[in-house]
Amino acid sequence: MAMAFSALTPVFIAIICVLIGIILKSSRKGTEKKESTPNQKAESRPWVDEDLKDSTDLQGEEEDDGGEWQGLDDDIAHIPFMTERYSEEDMVKRSKDLYTLLNKRRSVRFISDEPVPREVIDNVIKAAGTAPSGAHTEPWTFVVIQDPEVKHKIREIIEEEEEINYQKRMGDRWVNDLKRLRTNWIKEYLDTAPYLILIFKQVYGMHPDGKKKTHYYNEISVSIACGILLAALQNVGLVTVTTTPLNCGPRLRVLLQRPVNEKLLLLLPVGYPSKDATVPDLKRKPVDDIMVVI
Amino acid sequence: MAMAFSALTPVFIAIICVLIGIILKSSRKGTEKKESTPNQKAESRPWVDEDLKDSTDLQGEEEDDGGEWQGLDDDIAHIPFMTERYSEEDMVKRSKDLYTLLNKRRSVRFISDEPVPREVIDNVIKAAGTAPSGAHTEPWTFVVIQDPEVKHKIREIIEEEEEINYQKRMGDRWVNDLKRLRTNWIKEYLDTAPYLILIFKQVYGMHPDGKKKTHYYNEISVSIACGILLAALQNVGLVTVTTTPLNCGPRLRVLLQRPVNEKLLLLLPVGYPSKDATVPDLKRKPVDDIMVVI
User: Distance between CA A74 and CA A59 in Å, rounded?
Assistant: First the structure.
């Protein structure tokens, strides 16, 4: 009996050791998530997962920034700063006029196929490019699609993924929320809008030595640039609807041949509103609900 | 031998089963991370951690949105959409003029204590409040500080935390990056600027029944609003510097008595530039480096 025990033990000990090994490995994985750098992450992960996680991984990094965005190398000279100075009267008028203009902006999903001058698109994107960014990394890429075939491919990818999301990825909560949002799989504007602007955030950059360079606050920076872009579009009478195609980032990135350090943040179909365009009768919060003075 | 085997087997089988159970449990943990709601997260967590993690937790949720931002309840009526229509010539001119104005914007850290009309601040924040937001949640709170004592308390908290960050929280990589960023602990503008605008993102809201309501894309939405705010400030000749006070969010939230669902996103000191204001001689990327046309 004892003899049989000692004879058999090695077999089971071996099995147990293997299992313990698996436990340790899988539990270590969990903690590594937070520690490992975005570089390591970018590789070893399937694409859907990557799309879902990368910005969160970086978030942790981003929180560890120095706070000041005005990053500069020590050798950058400082120069006197000049700016327009308006009378208080002008300031009040200019601020009121801009508010009045922007307050007319609405997200419009009915976009006419009427052509829009390219120069205008160039200028609104140049305006967006004046946004501040963490350590002046300017971590944005604006991909402007005017080719009808590419626009249609984008539409196919987005409608396909949304159906998958609906059927497989979402829990009851999401389905209910989506009902509330009256989400519409059919996105005709992706074909009709003369331009689709896909905004990518560069989640990291490259040092001259080829090492990856963290782009602090890349998502906040690119979103700020998009805010300026939306104001610039409204300023010329063009409309758009702010969309974040769910889980399509990687496929669209590949379709548009963008590098792996770029992640899709927003997609904006841009054009004139169609003749019969309607918008939901939504109201905005009064200023007292969004502003507190101390 | 065979008998001994069958006698001993149950013992080891039991051990093996327990180990397999542990493996399954620990691997399930991993997936649960994504499923759990922000509600569960919001509680059980120390504040620094909370500040560092909440937006990442939500990010996962946010990625699970329906894509379209134009959320509306089924009972909201649609109304015809009207908008200004400009000639192509006007569009080109307006887009060029806005770019020229915004391209003069710089992050300025030398801010004069000269008073600024409150009405202007109200208008730029009203302009920021016209931003789109996920499911029209308008998840932003703009806290405007004009009380000198509160401004000074804010300065003390920020300078204190930055020293702690420098000494304890940051690894060599951060210290090196910070050297590169020539970060300055001393933030005089927090005292001198006539206004400090602290922008909070509401990471969740409340349903009438008191249940927490996910604010999809709250960070992107609030950042977009900040982009509009920066454009509106530039439009009236005021300056600011975009800052993200590291780890100060919770202390500032408590100081300003903001609810727990609000997290500090950005702090903008706002005023006229001081006479001797300088800025680093930075250039922006040419449009061809940020724009791709297909």
Answer: 26
- The pLDDT of residue A144: 98
Q: Is residue A18 part of a domain?
A: no
Instruction: Give the residue from A110, A199, A246, A173 showing the smallest Cα distance to B66.
Output: A246
Residue in chain B nearest A168 by alpha carbon: B64
**pTM check: above 0.80:** no
CATH at residue A167? 3.40.109.10
The per-residue pLDDT for range A259-284, each reduced to its tens digit, is 999 999 999 999 999 999 999 999 99
ipTM rounded to 2 decimals:
0.76
- Whether the CB-CB separation of B194 and A91 falls below 8 Å is answered with no
B44 located within any domain: no
Chain B CB contacts of A175 under 8 Å are: none
Confirm whether B2 is domain-assigned: no
Length, in residues, of chain A: 294
Tokens of B131: 């931003």
Residue A294 has pLDDT above 90, yes or no: yes
B69–A243 C-beta distance less than 8 A: yes
Q: Residue A225 belongs to what domain range?
A: 50-56+95-280
In a domain, A130, yes or no: yes
- Domains in chain A, number: 1
Tell whether B285 lies on the interface with A, counting CB pairs under 8 A. Answer: yes
Partner-chain residue, chosen from B79, B280, B287, that has the shortest CB–CB distance to A125: B287
Among A172-176, B201-205, B281-285, the range scoring the smallest mean pLDDT is A172-176
Cβ contact, residue pair B63, A52, below 8 Å: yes
